Amino acid sequence: MEAQSKIKAYCLKVPKNLGEKTIRLATELSLLSRDLKVRSDKEIILVPLNRKPTASKVSELKRMLPHLYITIEDFEPRAKRPRSISGVLGDRLPPYLLASVPRAIDFVGDIAVLEVPQELEKEKKLIGEAALQTYRRVRTVLAKSSAVAGTYRLREYEVIAGPPNTETIHKEHGCKYHLDLGKVYFSPRLSHERKNIASQVGENETVIDMFAGVGPFSVLIAKTHRNVKVYAIDINPEAIKYLERNTIVNGVWRNVIPLLGDAADIARSKLRGVADRVIMNLPEKAAEYLEAASDAVKPSGGIIHYYEFAEGPSFLNAIKERVTETMKKTRRKLERIPEARIVREVAPFRWQIAVDLLIR
Question: Residue 156's Cα: distance from chain center in Å?
């Protein structure tokens, strides 16, 4: 039976000390088979290929690996991982519960975060183990236990699979962020928006990130632009601790200045009139800080990236009107709104909205 289960395939035969280099090269040339297991013994390694290599690729392989041989050998198929949590649970849950298994998952470093519906509360440990089987990079699975709340914008979680550790390293747009989901706010769903804002920043700008968290806006801006200064404010001491660490890890500690405290107080007392650009990613309370943000903009003018939650019909126009009225109460003039856009859906028929304000 074992011999029948094996599959013949073209392969690269090399001395074992060249195994890693051979696998890397086969991957770069799109030749490595993902469906078959690599074979090895004490002296050689056999790297399975997904097809017969062309003459040009053979030449390139032998140029990089002079001791290479191309042969046909028997290989064991690699066990295929399930593609979804539902796929793992297909024969373990009745159809009416299987339909409720969460499909939306947030990946923060090696942690998976999901929302378990009430009807699956008794099955959440089973769902967590299924997530570990499905996603190779996941170490710990968390279930949301509360909404984001409080001054520090924290959410409660329950560990439903893996070790009970909420600290991780998240990678995004070439940056690394050390963080602890139990102590700081972080959303991977804002990845595109962070890239969008960083792309708008010009060289030699001064930016104020009023609710910086662990620094995903601030660090990316400083990483993308060499000659910028970013004042990164947060009221959560744990967020500032991780922010300081992340500026060092990403090599931007000269350009990002972490500041602990209330954003409005710091903007008015220390940063009045210094900013070319202000980021206000606090959609729950951004309106309360808009006057302080406008005070922080340079007298010559600048941009405020304002965020808010919205729902109902014509919500973009409603937010524009609301922001325009709020700006009338400040000491600055709103010249125009270059853009208002949907950032993400946070619940059915409820969205996070970004409004860019040009201030003079």
Answer: 19
Q: Which two tokens stand for residue 288?
A: 């309360």
198 and 131 within one domain? no
Residues 6+ apart with CB under 8 A from 190: 216, 281, 343, 344
The CATH number of the domain holding residue 100 is: 3.30.300.110
Half-sphere exposure of 111 (CA within 13 A, CB side): 26
Residue 161: which of 131, 196, 200 has the closest Cα? 131
Residue 78 has what pLDDT?
Answer: 84
Predicted TM-score (pTM) of the model is: 0.79
Q: Are residues 267 and 309 in the same domain?
A: yes
Centre a 10 Å sphere on the Cβ of residue 215 and count the other Cβ atoms it contains: 32
Which residues form the domain of 67? Answer: 2-75
In the chain, the number of structural domains is 3
List all residues 6 or more positions away from 267 whose beta carbon is below 8 Å from its beta carbon.
208, 210, 233, 278, 289, 292, 293, 295, 296
Considering the domain boundaries, does residue 178 fall inside one? no
pLDDT in tens, 56-104: 999 989 999 988 999 999 999 987 777 789 888 988 899 889 999 998 8
Asked if 243 and 214 touch (Cβ cutoff 8 Å), the reply is yes
